[in-house]
Write a structure and sequence with these properties.
two-stranded antiparallel ribbon; single chain; Rossmann fold
Length: about 190
């Protein structure tokens, strides 16, 4: 397959994504990382408690993303909450969520990301990792558009973005496009907004 040249706007997003991932790597190796992760976990758990999800969509952490599943698993308040993991399909690009129980073996989705072999479900609250985010709660992810398409098809879902505060980007640098869906809430180690 021949790769098509990137448009200037796509190239800018790719460059921004690479810079933010490099910053995440530096942050993860820093002395402040453990305290920041603990503060992020607490802020996220507090936020989720106020939302009282019946079915909570999570993600499988990769590339030094915050491990939301581990934080929830350690908190007994979520023992009765239904959990789900995303399952991504390559062709056509689509995302669904599958019921998941912590500790159960997972399967890899078509993108090679850990998922579940449980029944398909529709979470009422979804936690979404952010490579970057804006004050307007627009998210920069890995560029596949999976979450934007899923959120567009499920407008009533509460979406909670998770990132380190260092990943906030100016809206001039990352201008939202028509297909970019703003998240309901962004949670960092500094709290929810």
């Amino acid at each position: 397959m021949i790769a098509l040249p990137l448009s200037p706007a796509d190239a800018d997003r790719q460059s921004l994504r690479q810079r933010l991932l490099a910053e995440r790597d530096v942050h993860a190796g820093s002395a402040v990382a453990p305290d920041a992760a603990a503060a992020l976990a607490q802020a996220l758990l507090d936020t989720l408690m106020t939302l009282e999800p019946e079915c909570l969509g999570l993600y499988s952490a990769m590339r030094r993303e915050f491990n939301v599943a581990a934080a929830l698993h350690a908190d007994p308040r979520f023992a009765k909450t239904g959990l789900a993991l995303p399952y991504a399909r390559r062709t056509p690009r689509a995302l669904s969520f599958r019921r998941w129980q912590p500790g159960r073996p997972t399967v890899a989705d078509e993108c090679g990301i850990a998922s579940s072999d449980g029944a398909e479900v529709e979470p009422d609250v979804v936690v979404i990792p952010c490579v970057g985010f804006t004050a307007g709660r627009h998210r920069l992810g890995f560029g596949g558009g999976y979450y934007d398409r899923w959120l567009a098809a499920h407008p009533g879902v509460t979406s909670v973005g998770v990132a380190g505060s260092f990943a906030e980007i100016d809206e001039v640098v990352f201008a939202a496009r028509p297909h970019d869906i703003a998240l309901t809430i962004i949670v960092t180690e500094r709290g929810a907004r």
